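Notes, p. 3: input format for complexes.
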Amino acid sequence: MEPDGRAVAPRLPRFNPFQPGFRANPYPAYTALRTHNPVHQSLGRWVVTRHTDVRRLMMDRTLSVGHVPATLRALAERNGDLTAGRVLEFAEKSIVFTDGAEHRRLRKAVSPFFSPAALSALRKTFADLCGEIVVGLLAHGGEIDIVEAFAQAVPDRLLGHLFALDDKGVGDVRRGTGIIRKLLEPRAASGAEIEEAVASLDTVLAAFARGRQRLGDDRNAGPGMMLRLLDGLGQSGGPLQAAETELMAVMVYVAGLETTAGLIANACLALAEHPGEQRVLRRDPARAEAVVRETLRHEAPLQLTMRTAVAPIVMPEVTIPEGATILLCLGSANRDEEAYEEPNRFLVDRAGPPHLAFGTGLHACLGAVLAQLEAEAAVTVLVGAAELERAGDGELDWSARSTLLRMPERLPMTLRHVS
Ligand code: HEM
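Output follows (419 residues plus protoporphyrin IX containing FE):
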């Protein structure tokens, strides 16, 4: 009670990814937000947490994705900073941050490469490459960090194959795109981070140039397939300029490397915690699709994405004002009890609406089919060869590298051969 006898208004929960325990387990905080404060302002952003609201805003064509170029533009203008200008050009031309007709043009040019039909030829290649990695793991024996040794190694190797990278190229592109990806974090990038990103862009482009010298002949699934297809779009008479195909290649990596590593790591953890599911998957490899789908719902590798309101948005409880930056909480939407029964349980056969781990609408993940193929090959081959068991009962260090990405930093496991 206030001194004058009025009831004290209860303090509503607010989104705060820095509060103790949030990184380890954000889901209780998300449940409280969905229940008591589903759309609210926090840390200078508007935060949206319910499945129905997140989905609706992703489908709303009037929202803009131009927040990162806008921030970089302001920075470049304020500091007269030419370095920021170079990264700005990259951001402004990127499919992820363009709206309207420009986005439609870029998306139309590359979509055919990412369809199930175009990618199905890769299934066998991916299984073979995963098989080579698993043979190495089993030969190693003992305790391994499944994140570094497998979850990261698989997309490194598979995307490396699509871009004809050698081992040095794989390492350069992994480090370089990891640095560029930091520009996508919800906080504004520092001057030093921008300088580092520019240097990394050059390193990554140099690795692709070396890849071009190693292109294979097999157009469907051979080494360098993706690089060759993208380059083809930039040749004279093609729908893109050569510089745009370069940026597209970088974007494929920035958007698709660590996210897929997260998906595979999270799937390995779920399988280790559900040995019955391992046995079912071993008997029936077709089960991999459902295992990967439920992993994407249960532990969305990309937890947040952003939009800008170009006009006021009327929500059931409140109106989001024009100009607001909006955080769409995919990880919360996927655990919404209004959408899924027992949302916190990993249930491979569950019903409910499609998860939002790949987003939806005009900017829905371009690489969704590719990421699923990679993850399905990874878990099928690994579980086909070995029983996964967590080693030790230490707490996992979640989301250490980013507020956006949800995956354990390390995941010690033992692998036991199955006959
Ligand atoms: C498990 C792995 C992945 C996850 C969880 C994921 C998640 C997402 C999400 C949520 C979006 C929508 C963002 C938004 O609307 O603001 C997105 C967009 C995108 N993703 Fe992925 N992604 C994954 C893998 C990949 C891969 C492998 C590629 C590369 C081929 C890729 C390329 C892209 C691109 C280019 C976009 C932007 C599409 C556009 O703006 O039109 N992603 N991704």
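The domain at 37-417 is CATH 1.10.630.10 (Cytochrome p450).
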